[in-house]
Structure formats: structure tokens, C-alpha cells
Prior knowledge:
The protein is built from 22 helices and 20 strands. It is an alpha+beta fold. It has 2 domains: about 50-235, Penicillin-binding protein 2a (Domain 2); about 240-295 and about 305-615, DD-peptidase/beta-lactamase superfamily (Beta-lactamase, 3-Layer(aba) Sandwich). The termini are far apart.
Amino acid sequence: MTMKDTFVSRRYLIVIFFVLAFAVLAGRLFHIQIIKDTYRLSAYNNVLRHVTQYPARGLIYDRNGQLIVSNMAAYDLMVIPSQTAKVIDTAGFCSMLEISNDVFKHQMRAAVNYSRAAPSVFLKQISDETYARFQEKMYLYPGFYVQPRTLRKYSKPVAAHILGYVSEVDGNTIRRNPYYKPGDYIGKSGIEEAYESELRGQRGVKIYMVDVLSRIKGSYADGEFDTAAVQGDDIISTIDLDLQEYGETIMKNKRGSIVAIEPKTGETLALVSAPNYDPGLLVGRVRSENFARLQNDTAILPLFNRALMARYPPGSTFKPINGLIGLQEGVITEDTQFGCSHGYLFVGCHGHASPLGLAAAVANSCNSYFCQSFRRILENKKYASVEEAFGQWKKYLDEFGFGSSLGTDFSNELAGFIPSSEYYDRYHGRNRWKALTVISLAIGQGEIGTTPLQMANMTAAIANRGYYYTPHIVKGIGEERRMNPKFLEKHIIDIDSANFESIIEGMEGALGSITGATARSAAINGIVVCGKTGTAQNPHGDDHSVFVAFAPKDNPQIAIAVYVENAGTGATYAAPIASLMIEKYLTGAVANKAREQRMLELNLEEKLLKQRETQN
Length: 616
């Protein structure tokens, strides 16, 4: 090939390259200008306003269809700094919004720091009246516009720990979850947090044409690029709102908790933590101020959910479990009797008849009986060592749901604590501890820690004669009333159902049918209640009053655990409170008005305050 031929060949290649490049550019321009409207939309951004359409958050109902949480209208004042006028009537603007000039300057600096071109919130949740005034004068203030949204509204000032609250997302949430953007709201704690993805719905957007004065001139492209907001799913909770309100009323001026469960389903009927707070305090522009005040109240800790997060020794309410394990392991029978002379070795006991069989020991809450039973469990000769027998004992407790979280849909559920043999090996040395070393576990003391929720679940398992469903707070989501299938799973405990009968007989006897009964204060005319008193030791003051119960004895409808802090024995306060809750739920009213009035008037907060004053 000659040099001339080479030159001609290269010229053709260059021409072909430019022709192809021109064709590609022409095709791309045609696609952008004629076919792809998105690019035209982007080019018009300086005359368009994208207004987020926030969906209405899903409503929350109680188990009977009573509305607990709804929505109310609110408005955020938004600003786009690049579109604001260089000179505005700042005094008039501030007067209309009832803010100071310093607040105006601060908010404008924050908006500019965020973005000069993107909208951000200038003033959150302005009132209806302010919104109406501003709407009339908005044309005077280009770059500002109003963003509609909703806030939570509560039918009654109760159930704050169950419901949780809603607050604005922070930077960490936005980084973790790309769905959220600045200005969005998210559920915090309770149902609002646990079911956030169902309740929140889906954002939409409306795109408007605006003039140089930021006045809306109409929808862009006849709304072709708008998207509709999708309302969040409604939720049917398991809560009985009337029972919840009654429980909070009874626990006023006291510290402690009430957890009530429907045994046959695991549905939570009431969950009371006292002291509590009005959920309406954490709504609107006052939310931050009120939250800080509640959080800083270290004297009573109103934000602390005692029902889920407080860990107490269960005391004598734990004795039925050790009785069941003793029966299952074959170291005692329902007819086994132990004597009691005001205690067993170094564990004291109150005066009562002696000797006692199992049912009477439960009814009389005999420490000696359960210490001797526990010793037989750990010294059982079918195991090679105390450590091996202890491991089997702990396995039964694991099946009841102790020592770990139950896996509920509650936020912030705390795991209790059941020591392992390794735990004692670290403190005493391997093979250097025995049954008497840990004998306090026999009566629910020592290192055991349980939550009120776990104790209510234990009681439900006893009521069911050996099984439970994971406690939960929601029974239906959306129109389909769907729910997590794990809450339909039956957890079976490896204890024969027949072994529960003598324990239940003793729990029935505790309310008066057996001599020496410890819980007569919880008896209800016409209803067979089975219960167990307890006194949880408290190293920081008076012991805690504890009571667990279920009713009726046959076909149980409610299982309950009540803790009243610094109140002494279980029969004194926890038992009558549980009785009132049971009667209220099963009959709709309380017949024993004297018992009710005594509990309503009881002010343990005042007692604690006087004790502190005396100590100081």
C-alpha cells in the first residue's frame, strides 16, 4: 500500500468517527428534549416547588375497637434561601409568627447552612391560626411556603409506655435508613417504634409551578409527575383500654408495675408502669422541652418502663416453679411433707402449721418446704454432680422464658438473669459449691432477676398447665388483620400437665381455702382466683410487694403480675391491686368498693418523700 492510499484510508476513518459522534449526540439530544421529560423537569427546578405529601400515620385501636391514637393537622413553615427576597419586612414576619428577630436570624442561618437551593424547615408545627394568617401574606415573602403534615392525638392520657411517641429523625437514622429525609418523623419506643414500617405509610410529592414571588400558579405538567401519599396501616392492639386506664388510676402515687396477659393467646391486656406520663406531652413544639423535663426527673423516672426493664428478685412468687421442677424430677410428690420450725437452717420462715404437703406449702408460702425440695433437686442421684443437676434446673427455667428476653414486640424488653453453674464456678471454684451454697434460689432470692412481664408470662404458663404464647401487644395490622406468625407458636414446657394441679390447688388455697393462706386480701366473691404472694428483697429500702395470679381457675381469662415498690409483703398491696384488676376485667365493675378506695387513696410516694426527708 502506497503512502497516498494510507492517507486516504485514514481520512475515511476520521470522517466515519465524526459522523458516528454526531449521530450519537443528535440521538441523545432528541431523547433529552423530545422523549425524556425528566430532563426538562430538572431544568425547570428553579421555577418548580416540590411539596412532600406526608401520609397520615396509621391509627391505633384497643382490642375492643376503641380509638387510642389518631392524627391532627399541623403545618411546617419551609424556606428555600436562594428564592427569598434580599429585603423583607422582618418585623412584620416575626410578629405574624410570634417569634423574635434573633430566632429569625438563627433559623435563616441554619437553612443556609443546610442548603441554599433545597427546602428545609424554618419553623415546625405552627398553629392553625398562624397558618391562616401567614397564608394571606405569603406572597410578601418569596421563598417561604407551608408544608402540611400530621401529629399524633390521644383519646385518653394513658398507655404512654405502650404506645411510645413520634419525633423527628436524626442524622444517624438518616444515614442508617435511606428512606428517611430531614424533617421526617419516626416512631420512638412502644408500638410506634416496633411497628414503624407499618404505621408510617409512604410519602408522596406534588410539583407546583411558582412565580417570582413564590406564588403557586398551578400543578406542573397537570400532575403527571406527582405521586400520592399512601396512608399507614391501622393497628389493632391487644390492650383493653378501660382496664389499662383503671390500672394506671390504681397505681397513681405508687411505684411499680402491672402486667396482665390473656393466657390462651399471649395477648397483653394491660401494661402499667408507674409513675408514668401523659403521652400528649410529647406532641408538637413542646415535645423537646417536655421530654427533657421527663428525662431529667431522676427522682421518679417517669420514662422508665418498669414492666419491661426493671429487674427484681421474684421472691416467693417463684416457689411454684421449684415445686413443679421437684415434681417433674421425681424428688417430691404432691403428698411429700416437710417440717418447718420457723425456717430451714439459716433461712427463716413465718409461723404456720407443720408439717405441710405441697399444696399447703404453696398456700402458706413455707420457706422450709421449698428449701428442702430445692436441695433434693440439686442432690438428685441420677445426676453425676450438683453442677449437672443445676444445669437441668436451669433448663426448666429457660423453657419458662426466664434468663433471656421473651422475644415480644415490645421495645426495650430487658432480659432477666438466671445464674449458670459456670457463674458459680467463677465465684466459688469448680466443684467447690453445693446446694446449700445457692439455697436462696429456692425461694426466689439470691442472684435471680426477673421482670414483671416474665412473671406474668410464668403465671400464664401455669394457668395453661404447661405452655404459653409469646406475650405481644398487637393482634392485627391493616385491613387483613395480619400478625407475626411467631405469636401463634405454642411454647411447651417439659413438665407433665398433671404436675400443675397440686401447684394450682395451693395457689387457689392461698386466697383462703387452705388454713394459713397468705393472700386472703385478693379473694373475689364468685370468682375462683389462684395466686401467690411474694416479698422481693430490696437492698435500697423497704422490700417490694409482689403478687401473681390467674382467674378463673378453670378456663383462665387473665394472668397478672403486680409489683409495688417499697411496699412490704405481697399480701399488703400487690394482692388487692391484682384482685381489683381481675374483677374489673372479668365483670366490668368492682364490687368491693372499700378495697378499691383503700388502694386509690394509698400514697406511697408521700411515704418515700418523708423517709428521704428523715434520712437527710
